[in-house]
Structure formats: C-alpha cells, structure tokens
Specification:
The protein is mostly helical. The chain has a domain of 128 residues. Helices cover 73% and strands 0% of the residues. It has twelve helices and no strands. Helix 2 runs antiparallel to helix 3 and helix 7 packs antiparallel against helix 8. The chain is globular, with a radius of gyration of 20 Å.
Length: 370
C-alpha cells in the first residue's frame, strides 16, 4: 500500500510544482506494477499456490528474501535507477519461480487448469522485465515497447484470467465440485488447460503485435474477444444469482470495468492510454482490494462479515470508480489534463487510505484455523 501511495502521489507532486526535476511517467508505471500490484501478487500466490497443490509453505528465509528483493527493486526505481530496478525485479521473479517450482515438483494435487494462464503471465513478466532491463545496452529496438506491454499489461491480466477462473466463482458463491487430491489430471482437465494456454498465447501475441504497431486495431479486437470470452466462460458473473452483498458487487463492478477497458481502444483508438488506466485503476486495483479484503477477513476470523455490507469497501470502490473516470476524461481534455490527473490521484489515494485503515490492522490477527 505504501508503494501504491508513492506511485500515485507522483502526479500531484509534479503538477503542483513540488517535485518537477523529472517527468514521473516511467517511475509511476514501475512502482504501481512492480511495487503495488507485485506485492499483492507475490503475497497471494506465495500463500495460495502451496495450499492449492498440497505443498509445503514458504520457509522464513525464502519469504524474507522475496521481501528484501522486492524492497530493493522498487526502492531502486524510486531512486531514479529504472533499469537497475528492472534487473532486481527480474531476480525477484526468478527466485519466486524457483520457490514455486520446487513446491510444484512436490505437489500432492494438480492446480486448476486455468493456472496455465498464471504461468504464461509470469512468462510475460520475465520476458518483459528482461527486455526492459536490456534497454541501456541497445540489444534490440523493440525492447522498450514490447517489454512494457508484456510486463504492464500481460502479467496481471493473465494472472486475473487464470486465477480468477478458480477463485472468483468461489467468491461469487458458485457451487464448486469436490475431488480428492491427485496428481493425475481429472476428466476434462487437459482440454480446459489447452483452452487456457490458447487464450494466453493469443493475448500475448496481440500485445507484441500492438507494441510493434502491427495491425493495432485487429490486435485490440482479438485481445478483447479472447479475454472477454474466457472471463465470461470461467466467471459467468453476469448470470450468477447471488446476494448483492458488498464483496460480490465490488467484484462485478471491477470485472465490468476490466472488460470496458479492453473495449475502450476499439471505440477511441487514439485514447489507448485512457483505456489502459480504466483497466489498471478500475479493473486491476479494485479486484486486488476486493480479493484482499475477503482473504484478510477470512484468515482473521471475520468470515461472518462476508455476507454483510462493508461501508469501507463500498467507499473505496466508489472512489476508485471516480478515479478511473477522472483519469480517462483527462486524456480527452489535454488543456486541463493536469487537473483531472490530480483529481484521479487524490481519489485513488483516499480510496487506498480508507481500505488500509479498516483492513490492514486485521493482518496482525492470527488465523483461528491455523
């Protein structure tokens, strides 16, 4: 959350003339993707993957190595050394994948087939970060645009599609089939894994094509169709009849904004960056905070709050929607863009503060089922 505040506060500091020694675009993107979202990704998957596969949890020295690498990578970005920060983040990705790979080899159960997309998401992150880290060496002219697309867009999008197909239906109260632990694929597992792999490869290919300015409109259309179809097939949130409690409403809003952001460049191709921020702010960050709310409540003995109204999450969600709207409007009004970006930044930081105030203290409460 501190990295989130750091990354978003760069815009008000810049436009108000408090810190104008550099344009904050690159630092903002890296701190938000590698720092803010990265912290939730590593924390969530570092806990969930061993549980899903029946493998041992992270050892203390592995956890603290991840934490230190994460702090070093993002701290280096904040210190205006972006390419050194990318190399440290690449080391973080590699160490995390080694830790998870060792546990996958010792698994008692296969992960859900959608986790193939999570693997492809991390492949996007590794290749993208490696390309970005190589930019100062001028090894290839496409390193910056392709690396940026794979890391900033491909990584988290594929993770949400892959893990969301397993996790989000449970959050929406959809019935889930039970099966005994086994390393043998159950019926239909391979077919669903192939569909997930095809979806991930298609999305990755469209990101590369767009970064290289190759049939950009077609790339947008194909990516929107592939991601939207997979999401609606695995998380049919539009058809699920569940109580309109805070968690499910916020999750549905976030998924709608994610799809809207994917559709955005089809309607306004010249405002692609505005559409990306609808994805990042309304989709990625709202999904992150909603899932984190449920996880923290569930592991701190507060699962009885799941079906209740959560005013703090409602407030945070409304502010995030406002932030996404203001950020998108800003790109359509270039003469007053700085004011819209300031408003979006303040709305997001206020949302994050409200959420952190009510949720973060609960992470210190031991899991009663531990």
């Amino acid at each position: 959350m501190l990295f989130g505040f750091s990354g978003v506060s760069l815009w008000p500091l810049f436009y108000l003339g408090i810190h104008t020694s550099f344009y904050p675009g690159m630092m903002h993107a890296r701190v938000m993707i590698e720092g803010f979202l990265g912290a939730f990704v590593f924390g969530f998957l570092g806990t969930a993957l061993p549980r899903v596969t029946g493998a041992p949890p992270l050892k203390p020295w592995e956890l603290w190595t991840l934490v230190l690498l994460h702090l070093a990578a993002v701290g280096t970005h904040i210190g205006l050394q972006p390419f050194a920060g990318d190399r440290l983040f690449l080391a973080l990705l590699a160490f995390f994948l080694v830790c998870m790979g060792r546990r996958f080899a010792r698994r008692a159960d296969l992960p859900p087939p959608g986790f193939v997309l999570a693997g492809l998401g991390f492949l996007n992150a590794v290749i993208g970060t490696a390309l970005l880290a190589s930019v100062p060496w001028n090894l290839c002219t496409f390193a910056l645009p392709v690396g940026t697309a794979l890391l900033n867009e491909g990584w988290v999008l594929l993770l949400i599609l892959g893990i969301g197909g397993f996790l989000l239906p449970r959050f929406l109260g959809m019935p889930q089939p039970e099966r005994p632990e086994s390393r043998t694929p159950p019926p239909g597992w391979k077919a669903r894994a192939l569909v997930a792999a095809a979806t991930g490869i298609t999305i990755t290919a469209t990101l590369i094509a767009e970064a290289l300015s190759f049939h950009v409109h077609a790339a947008h259309l194909i990516r929107c169709g592939a991601a939207g179809a997979y999401l609606l097939a695995t998380v049919p949130f539009h058809r699920v009849k569940v109580a309109n409690v805070t968690l499910t409403v916020c999750l549905r809003v976030a998924l709608v904004l994610l799809i809207a952001g994917l559709v955005f460049p089809l309607a306004w191709p010249l405002q692609r960056v505005a559409g990306l921020h609808v994805i990042f702010i309304g989709g990625f960050s709202l999904i992150t905070l909603t899932v984190a709310t449920r996880v923290v409540l569930g592991h701190s003995g507060n699962s009885h709050l799941f079906p209740t109204a959560l005013p703090f999450l409602i407030t945070a969600a409304l502010l995030i929607v406002i932030a996404a709207t203001l950020r998108a409007i800003g790109d359509f009004l270039p003469m007053t863009r700085n004011h819209w970006l300031n408003g979006a930044s303040c709305a997001w930081m206020l949302a994050a503060a409200v959420w952190a105030w009510r949720v973060l203290p609960r992470v210190r409460i031991a899991d009663p089922e531990g």
